Amino acid sequence: MSFNLNQLLEDRRGENLKLHQEHINPQFAKVLKTIGFDVPYLRGEGAYLYDANDRRVIDFLSGYGVFNIGRNHPKVADALKQLLDSEHPALVQMEAPLLSGVLAEKLKALVPSELNKVFFTNSGTEGVETAIKFARSATGRSKIIHCDHSFHGLSTGSLSLNGGDWFRESFGELLDSQVIPFNDIEALETALKDKTVAGFIVEPIQGKTVKVAEDSFLQQAQKLCEQHGTLLIIDEVQSGYCRSGKMFAMEFANIVPDVLVTAKALSGGYIPVGAVLTKDWIYKKVFSSMDRCVVHSSTFGQNNAAMVAGIATLEVLQEENLAERAQQSGERLMSGLNKLVEKYQFVDEVRGRGLMVGIEFKRPKSLKLKMAWDLVHKVNDGLFGQAIVIPLLSDHGILTQVAGRDEDIIKLIPPLTLTEEDIDYFVECFDQVLASCNKFPGPIWEVATRLTKIALTKR
Ligand SMILES: Cc1ncc(COP(=O)(O)O)c(C=O)c1O
C-alpha cells in the first residue's frame, strides 16, 4: 500500500493539541490553549497561513525567522522535488559531496574573503557549539564572553552564553563564560584584558530585545579581540540572509569577524540547516592533521536536501532583491509604528533594522493605567505584551510573539516578501489594539487580568 499523506492529514485533522498533550509537551499545549493560539493551520503560502475555515493569517513570526523567502516558496519546493527524483546519493560519508561544495562556494561569495572555510550544521545552536569549539581550539583558552539578554541557542554550550538566568535554571554547571552589557565597549575591554578569553560572541541585532549593536561597538570589538588574541564570533542565526536589509547585518559595521554563525533562513524553512564561516588559520588549528579530519562533524550536516534548499534559497534571496525589500518594508513599518509612539503613552520605542523590528512598552503616566500596568507586572513582565498579541491574532488575523519572557517587547520578523498592504494593515490593527489598551477597564486589561490569574494559580 502506498503512503498517502493527504489521507493521513485528513484522518487526523484536529487532533493536534491532544497528540501534543499526550506525547510531546503538555505545558506548551496548555499555553497555546490559554492564549487561543491552538489554531490548526492547514496551509502556508508566502507570508500567510490558512486555517480550516480558510481564514488568512499574516505571519509576523516566520517560524522564528526561518521563512525569509516566504512559506513554501515554489522555486525551493521544485528544487527539492528534483532532488528526490534524481536519486542522487546522499550521505555516502566517505566521499566529498558535490552539493555541499557548491553551497559553500556560494556562501563564501556573500562574505568577506577572509571567511574562506564553511562548516555545515543542522541548527543554529549547533553552529554556536561549533564556534565555541573552534574558538577554544584556535586559542587554547576556554572562556567565552557574551552579552546580557543574548540568545545563542539551548544546547549546553550555547546555553552557557545565554543572557537570561531563567533559561539556565535547573540545568547544572555550564561552560566557562562571562556576561557584559550589550554595546558596552569598556566592559568588553576590561573582560578581555587578562587574555584568557577564547571568544566574544554577539548578535548584531539581539533576538530577545531587538536592540541593534552599534556599528562603532562592533568595529571596536573587532579591534579589541584582535589585540587580545580573542576570536570575534558574530551570531547571525536570526539576523542573517537579508532580514536586516543587508545579506548579513554585520555589513552595516563593515566588520570581518573570525567566525560567522548562520542558520534558520538558509534553507527557505524547508530543511534544518546551518553554516559556520570562518578563517583558514582557525580551520587549520581544529582540523590540524589527517588524523583529526573529522574531529568536529555531524552525520546530517551536509545532507543533500539542506544543501539543495540552501542553493535555491540563495538564488531566491538575490533574484527577488529581498535585502532591499526588507530594508524598504522595514522603513515603512517602523515609520507607521513610530507614529503610535507619539499617540500612546505605553509605547516606549520602535527599533530594529530591516524586517527585524521590536516594539517596547513602558509604564504609562496616567494614574488609572499605571495601576493596571503595575498589577500585571507584579506577576510577570511579559504578560502585557501577551495581552496585545492575543487580540492581534483573534481579532485581526495577525500572528506575532513577545520577544522574550520578562520582556515588554513584541518582535516582528515576517517573511521579507510582505506587501505594502500587509504592512499598512498591521499598523492599522496595532493602532486599534493599542487604542483599546487606553480603556481601563477594557478588553485588553481583561485579557491581561485573565493571564495574570492563570500565572498566579500556576505558581
Ligand atoms: C541569534 C540566535 N542564535 C542561535 C539560535 C539557536 O538556533 P536554533 O534554534 O536553530 O538552535 C537562535 C534561535 O532563535 C538565535 O536567534
Secondary structure layout plus pairing:
Elements: H1 5-11, H2 16-23, H3 26-34, E1 41-45, E2 48-51, E3 56-59, H4 62-65, H5 74-86, H6 98-108, E4 115-121, H7 124-139, E5 143-147, H8 156-159, H9 165-168, E6 177-180, H10 185-192, E7 197-202, H11 215-228, E8 231-235, E9 259-262, E10 274-279, H12 280-286, H13 304-319, H14 322-343, E11 347-353, E12 356-361, H15 367-379, H16 383-396, E13 398-399, E14 401-402, E15 409-412, H17 420-437, H18 443-458
Parallel strand pairs: 3-13, 5-6, 5-7, 7-8, 8-9
Antiparallel strand pairs: 1-2, 2-3, 4-10, 9-10, 11-12, 12-15, 14-15
Helix pairs in contact: 2-3, 5-13, 6-13, 7-12, 10-11, 14-17, 15-18, 16-17, 16-18
The protein binds pyridoxal-5'-phosphate.
